[in-house]
Amino acid sequence: MAEVQAQLQALSEEYQKLQQELQTAVESRQKVEAQRQENLGVQKEFERLKDGESIYKLAGPILLKQDKVEAESTVKGRLEFIGNELERSDSHIKEIQEKLEKKKGEIIQAQAGLQAAGAGAGKAAAKA
């Protein structure tokens, strides 16, 4: 019975670690999504620009004039990178969720084993 309790405790700790890992992964994904939204906003601003209007890039404390084609290319490249990062993040989150479900099943089985052992010990004590 003590062995089953120790196993249950270990499974519970593993489950908590996986939950923490999931929370970290979700927070990371949210940050990447915020970057995506910011870059989409910049892309929309580029579409509203009229010919001849200037684009400036902040480099430290200095604003540098930037070519429109170069700026659009940079933002498009960032959006592609962010899209790939979001896909990777989503698959990582899904993988963690699957591990959590598996661990949850193991915990339920261990609890059922503990309850069965407790019921068996109770019946043995009642007969004695």
Determine the structural class based on helices, strands and strand pairing. Answer: mainly alpha
Strand order in the sheet with the most strands: 1-2
The unreliable regions are none
**C-alpha Rg, in Å?**
27 Å
Query: What is the H-and-E element order?
Result: HEEH
Determine the N-to-C terminus distance. Answer: 19 Å
Profile the largest sheet. 2 strands, antiparallel
How would you sum up the global shape? rod-shaped
How much of the polypeptide forms β-strand, as a percent range? Answer: 5-15%
Count of discrete alpha- or pi-helical segments spanning 4 or more residues: 2
Number of strands: 2
This entry's quaternary arrangement is single chain
Helix content: over 70%
The mean pLDDT is: 90
What does this 3D model show about the protein?
- It contains 2 helices and 2 strands.
- The chain starts with a helix and ends with a helix.
- The model has no long low-confidence stretch (mean pLDDT 90).
- Helix 1 runs antiparallel to helix 2 (68-127).
- Strands 1-2 form a two-stranded antiparallel ribbon.
- The chain is 84% helix and 8% strand.
- With 128 residues, it is mainly α.
Question: What is this entry, summarized?
Answer:
By secondary structure, this protein is mainly alpha-helical. Helix content is 84%, strand content 8%.
